[in-house]
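Our consortium's second objective concerns turning raw sequence data into structural hypotheses that experimental partners can test. To show how far this objective has progressed, the report includes one record in full. It was chosen at random from the queue rather than selected for favorable results. The single chain below, 237 residues long, was entered without modification.
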Amino acid sequence: MAAVAERIHYAEGRRTNFTVVAGALLAGGIAVLTFIIDRQLARIITYPAVAAAIASIVLLVVYARQTNRYPWTDATRTWKWFYRDALPNQAQFDPKWWTILWFGSERERLKAAYAEQLPMFRARLGDLKDAANSFDQDVQQLYVLHINEKFKNVHLSQLRSLFQIGVWAIVALVLLAVIVGAWADRQRLAEHRLTETYGDLRLQVAWRFISVSEEDQTVLVQVAAQNLGQNPVAAPS
């Protein structure tokens, strides 16, 4: 039993590690956006950051759903080892939610339940004097532990698969963000040309931004003016 319980603790520890990573990704995905000043860069980084946050939330929800979710426990009768069947009425020891602040009358109720159930608990332990009954309880508990270990490893595999899918999705979005960001920077720094004619005056204009940051609106402009007629012309306003 001790060996199986140790393996269960090992699997549960590994399962918990995924939630630690998920929490870090969730916090990082939200916090990284607050440090980005450049609006264009922020729009690009938003997608992988949000994906990391969503993947982390999904991982945490799955972890919460897996915890203490064992459909076979209603069939167990391992009263020698486990409180659910060992206590004559274990539900009487459920504290109310408001006892987090104070016990009040709940303190006396729980003390009364303790005094009431102790004789029944003591009487039932007498059945363990029979070696066959004691052995049967050991067999049932070991059986329950094996099933528990099976569930823990299935849960661990599910979390690992979900985590890997999330990581690959984040990596794909990061690569996509890099490509989109590079394309956006190239488009912003590209030279734009414009030709306009005002009567006999032809203007050829070339302009481009000198920075990829939308905070820097400095524009480099080159203008070529050509008089197509014989008389002097004034540039339009």
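The partners drew two points from this record. The chain is about 60% helix and 10% strand. Strands lie at 192-198, 201-209, 219-227. Both points have been shared with the crystallography group to help prioritize constructs.
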